[in-house]
Design the sequence.
């Protein structure tokens, strides 16, 4: 039979096909099965919500972690150039302040020849500042090219220089230094 003839046959004999009705018991069983499938247990609904929440947290955490690693990686790639300029700045400052400090310290040594306790106290104070400088250098190794650490190191050099200048001014006020520097100038 072709489709057209079959369709025509079904239309013509429709009443003979609809003679048999399913029993009401079958419809009740189908209805019960549908009701049971729709019934959602409260614990499974909570489980679904927890699973969705866990998925969202997992995705957010992985996104944050990958973004953090990417930012850290790109920062590390850019860091060597920045490190070089910052470290060069620190080396220049160290050279400058070392020359200044050695000059002032030798002046203090000359001025305190008659009173070595003063010189020893100055050296002791400088040793404390040197200890702080060493701690800053350790921080610099741990926290490479941190601008703040370098600024603290430079400030430490400035404090040492200021200490020596204050001592020299004090010695000049006491005229302890003028006689020794004049004697050296005469030589």
Sequence:
């Amino acid at each position: 039979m072709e489709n057209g003839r079959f369709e025509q046959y079904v239309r013509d004999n429709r009443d003979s096909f609809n003679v048999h009705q399913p029993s009401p018991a079958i419809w009740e069983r189908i209805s019960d099965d549908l009701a049971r499938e729709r019934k959602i247990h409260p614990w499974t609904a909570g489980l679904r919500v927890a699973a969705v929440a866990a998925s969202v947290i997992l995705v957010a955490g992985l996104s944050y972690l990958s973004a953090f690693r990417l930012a850290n990686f790109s920062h590390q790639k850019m860091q060597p150039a920045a490190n070089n300029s910052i470290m060069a700045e620190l080396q220049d400052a160290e050279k400058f302040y070392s020359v200044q400090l050695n000059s002032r310290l030798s002046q203090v040594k000359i001025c305190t020849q008659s009173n070595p306790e003063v010189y020893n106290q100055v050296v002791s104070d400088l040793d404390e500042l040197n200890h702080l400088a060493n701690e800053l250098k350790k921080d610099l190794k741990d926290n490479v090219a941190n601008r703040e650490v370098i600024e603290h190191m430079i400030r430490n050099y400035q404090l040492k220089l200021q200490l020596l200048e204050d001592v020299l001014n004090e010695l000049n006020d006491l005229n302890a230094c003028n006689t020794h520097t004049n004697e050296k100038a005469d030589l």
